[in-house]
Amino acid sequence: MATITQTLTTSTPKTNGATSNGIHSTEADADYIPHGTVTSDLKFYSPPADGSKPYNYVETPPAGHPQRNFSDADHAVTISDIRGQESSFTLDNNAFETLTTTPDPNATEPDFTSDAHIKKTYYPEVERLILDHVPGANRVLLFDHTIRRANPNAPRAPVTRVHIDQTPASAEARVRHHISDPVEADTLLRGRYRIINVWRPLNGPVQSFPLAFADSATVADEDLVGVEHRYPDRNGETAGVKWSERQRWYYWSGMRNQERLLLKCFDSDEVVGGRGRVPHTAFVDPRSPVGARGRESIEVRALVFG
């Protein structure tokens, strides 16, 4: 696993208090990069009041239906910084892992405003990264991506609710959805298959709305609740996450554009990769300075076979 080699330099702000939007008012300049352990309120799953099955609409819901029928339960959580100890965590043991890429000085940064351009120029990099760094991977199918921007006009903003993108049922359904030949799908499902998200910032280093992720080894099955994920043409399933004091939470401070965070959402191997699901969420860092850049990021989701 590649790890960061350079030292992240930060200044220490003088704190004057938090503003209403969660951004800290400081006398530091707007380039301050928060780092180190922090405590923040995270939003965990709270079930529907009427006891019904939880659901969430991906797009605009039908008339008379709420976007989702479950609510949030806020809990103050201590979130530890993994910078400097990146090599302590792996996909198999913790369901997350870090990588640092070496930019090609002759290459042009992909244009992250065009889906077609992203698929043409960035997808090959992600596929190669997974094949080179995920043990056992011999085939990769990138099935979608999401760009998130922390500004009011963005189509997708950072998600500030603890969740897991897939469940065992939806992972199998993903394979069958994207592998059109049922015989081939059955063959792949008999082997090891994983769903891994590759996450990176677009305007790093990250100052605001960093990504928190839990060590999967500290998350029990009873903490997870299947949530029907309603697309316009089909239904999938994600997992809501209930709070537990057993859980241990982390983030990677000041993530830079050349850094990649691998998040494993599912692993069919219950022996090697039994801890195959990583809860994650964006969070409000109370140390973010006034004038901080709104976080912009891309996550690419991959079916990984082998």
Question: Descriptors for this entry?
Answer:
306 residues; alpha+beta; 5-stranded mixed sheet; 5-stranded antiparallel sheet; 16 strands; disordered N terminus
Structure explained in plain terms:
- It is a single chain.
- This protein is of the alpha+beta class and 306 residues long.
- The chain starts with 14 loop residues before the first strand and ends with a strand.
- The strands form 4 sheets. Strands 3-5-13-10-15 form a 5-stranded mixed sheet, with no helix packed on it. A 5-stranded antiparallel sheet has the order 6-14-9-16-7. The chain has a 4-stranded mixed sheet with strand order 4-11-12-8, covered by helices on one side.
- Residues 1-27 have low confidence and may be disordered.
- The protein has helices spanning 91-94, 115-133, 168-178, 182-190, and strands spanning 15-18, 24-26, 38-46, 55-57, 71-81, 96-100, 139-149, 163-164, 193-201, 211-214, 224-230, 235-241, 249-251, 259-267, 280-282, 296-305.
- The protein contains 4 helices and 16 strands.
- Strand 1 and strand 2 (24-26) form a beta hairpin.
Summarize the structure.
The protein is of the alpha+beta class and 306 residues long. It contains four helices and 16 strands.
The number of E-state strands comes to 16
Largest sheet: 5 strands, mixed
* Overall residue-averaged pLDDT value: 90
Percent strand equals 25-35%
**Could you name the ranges where pLDDT drops below 50 across 5 or more consecutive residues?**
1-27
Distance between the termini: 18 Å
The tally of helices reads 4
Radius of gyration: 19 Å
- Helix and strand element order: EEEEEHEHEEHHEEEEEEEE
Overall geometric form: globular
Classification by helices and strands: alpha+beta
Order of strands side by side in the largest beta sheet? 3-5-13-10-15
Helix content: 10-25%
